[in-house]
Design brief:
The complex is a heterodimer. Chain A is an all-alpha fold. Chain A folds into 2 domains: 1-115, Orthogonal Bundle (Rna Polymerase Sigma Factor, Chain: A); 120-202. In chain A, 71% of the residues lie in helices and 0% in strands. Chain A is built from 9 helices and no strands. Chain A has helices at 2-8, 19-27, 31-51, 58-75, 86-109, 121-143, 147-156, 161-166, 175-200. In chain A, helix 3 packs across helix 4 (58-75), helix 4 packs across helix 5 and helix 7 crosses helix 9. Chain A is globular and about 50 Å long. In chain B, 62% of the residues lie in helices and 0% in strands. In chain B, helix 9 runs antiparallel to helix 10 (250-266), helix 10 runs antiparallel to helix 11 and helix 11 (270-282) packs across helix 12. By secondary structure, chain B is mainly α. Chain B has helices at residues 2-8, 14-26, 28-88, 116-120, 161-173, 190-197, 201-214, 219-231, 235-244, 250-266, 270-282, 289-299. Chain B starts with a helix and ends with a helix. The chains are: A mainly alpha, B mainly alpha. The A-B interface holds A 6-7, 9-10, 12, 29, 31-32, 34-35, 38-39, 42, 60, 63-64, 67-68, 71-72, 75-78, 128-130, 132-137, 139, 151, 155-158, 186, 189-191, 193-194, 197-198 and B 8-11, 28-29, 31-33, 35-36, 38-53, 55-57, 59-60, 62-63, 66.
Chain lengths: 202, 300
């Protein structure tokens, strides 16, 4: 049976038979939908990477950063479904990410004054959010337990309070107590972020 | 908190968004909270993308293996198809099997009498040693079905009329079978036996010659060497070996007697051969009586 599964698992998009269904999956951050999008876009991304003279290993990185940009655009409402294939839009993002990666590589080798300004709003936004994510990761480590788990389970891993309680993922036995604890932890995290901002002057 | 969610998810209208951004710009605590919430959202997205990326790499690995397997299967099927196709191709026509002289079944009736034409105007033979020779083969006592195909005509000296007549006579009289009925061999003679079965008399003779050094006093060896010599046209030498064979059962004795007659004829001793054939023809219990009668008829 496993062999049969192995052979029939060839199409990662079999459950996304329409563009709308794929968009809905992406909006809900379904892993299968992201996999489908990436699998479909992979050949075009590899081609774009090769076209920009980047090494093949960069394709994976470009694909992931384009996915982050695209998901962010869906989440903040910048991209809304209008009947077109999300794939077309996604490939355009990936191409721009490949271009940005090329320019970054050139910047590393050439004096900055020789290059024109190459600001891509999506790329700049991505860098800003990645910076914010790095900061939060750092602060969560400083926050310690149980706040680290309480915040991570809800905000990063996407568990609901009921799931956390039912699966006994923390020591809190009711959703209300968990919610109260998380609220406290978030306040602490924001205070830490404020202190961190002051100390680093960012 | 709801304001942050609405702001970050793009659900806030333009006016609300403008006012919220103004508020953030003047409040460091809100700025810090916005940064935390943005960071958490980004971490969530990164986790999801990492999860999907792992699944994609697994899918790629499976896809590559599937491609290899499908490729191998297609190559295998193609190879099989080519193999079947090649096998089905008709083979070039094989040349007809070599028609050994005297390979036809022995006639069971009396041999044909020489025609007047043959007697009056014998035609000189062509210079061919592989000319098929029709031999009359006599009685059914030696099982005719088991007869090996007779060999080419034995060597003859000269190509004159006398030699031709002798050859013709031998054609009409000749009868030999290998292996003789009831002939039993041990391991030492297997190779020579196989060569004799394959009608390679000279090679068989060579083998037997070598074997004779080990087995100088062996009747089976003498019989086989005599048989080889008879087929090689060396009648006198063959008789020497046949005569040296010791006491044998009656069928073997009768066979040797018939061979002696043939060997005498081979060596040109026509009268001596006729004496032997007459004796055979006169004995109703002789296994080769019929061959003997035929021989007498042709010789007289």
């Amino acid at each position: 049976m496993r062999i049969l599964d192995w052979f029939t698992s060839g199409n990662p998009c079999k459950q996304f038979d329409s563009n709308e269904r794929l968009f809905e999956g992406l909006r809900k951050l379904e892993t299968a939908a992201i996999l489908c999008l990436q699998a479909k876009a992979l050949p075009s991304v590899k081609k774009a990477v090769a076209g920009h003279g980047l090494p093949d290993e960069k394709a994976d990185e470009i694909l992931n950063s384009a996915t982050l940009v695209f998901l962010q655009k869906i989440e903040c409402g910048a991209y809304q479904f209008q009947g077109y294939s999300p794939l077309t839009y996604f490939i355009e993002i990936a191409k721009r990410q490949a271009l940005m990666a090329t320019r970054s590589a050139k910047k590393a080798m050439q004096p900055l004054e020789n290059l024109p300004e190459t600001a891509d709003p999506d790329h700049v936004d991505l860098l800003r959010r990645q910076d914010a994510a790095d900061t939060v990761r750092l602060l969560l480590d400083q926050l310690g337990q149980p706040c680290n788990d309480v915040i991570r389970l809800y905000h990063i891993d996407g568990y609901s309070d009921e799931e956390v309680v039912n699966q006994r993922l923390t020591k809190y036995s009711t959703p209300d107590s968990l919610k109260m604890k998380r609220s406290d932890c978030m306040k602490k995290l924001v205070q830490l972020a404020q202190q961190w901002k002051t100390s680093t002057n960012i | 908190m709801e304001d942050f969610d609405q702001y970050l998810s793009g659900k806030m209208d333009a006016e609300g968004r403008r006012r919220f951004e103004q508020k953030i710009a003047t409040d460091p605590a809100l700025q810090a909270e916005l940064r935390v919430r943005e960071g958490l959202r980004q971490l969530r997205l990164e986790a999801k993308v990492a999860q999907a990326s792992t699944a994609r790499r697994e899918w790629e690995r499976h896809r590559n293996w599937r491609r290899i397997l499908v490729g191998c299967a297609i190559a295998g099927l193609f190879g099989l198809a080519v193999f079947v196709w090649v096998k089905k191709e008709p083979l070039p026509p094989t040349p007809p099997a070599t028609q050994w002289p005297n390979q036809e079944a022995a006639p069971t009736s009396e041999p044909l009498q020489p025609t007047d034409e043959e007697e009056i105007a014998p035609v000189l033979p062509e210079k061919k040693t592989t000319e098929p020779i029709q031999q009359p083969i006599a009685e059914a006592k030696p099982n005719l079905d088991q007869l090996p195909p007779p060999a080419d005509f034995p060597n003859l000296r000269g190509e004159d009329v006398e030699a031709y007549e002798l050859k013709k006579l031998l054609d009409q009289v000749w009868y030999a079978q290998y292996p003789p009925a009831g002939f039993k061999l041990d391991g030492a003679f297997e190779e020579a036996d196989a060569l004799l079965m394959g009608r390679e008399y000279e090679k068989a003779y060579g083998k037997l010659q070598r074997l004779e050094r080990k087995l100088p006093d062996n009747d089976t060896l003498r019989m086989m060497k005599g048989f080889c010599l008879m087929y090689m046209g060396e009648g006198t030498e063959a008789i020497r070996y046949f005569d040296a064979v010791g006491e044998q059962p009656l069928p073997t004795q009768q066979l040797l007697e018939w061979y002696r007659g043939q060997c005498l004829l081979l060596s040109g001793k026509r009268e001596d051969a006729l004496v032997v054939f007459r004796k055979i023809a006169a004995d109703p219990k002789h296994s080769y009586q019929r061959q003997g009668k035929t021989a007498v008829r042709f010789l007289e």
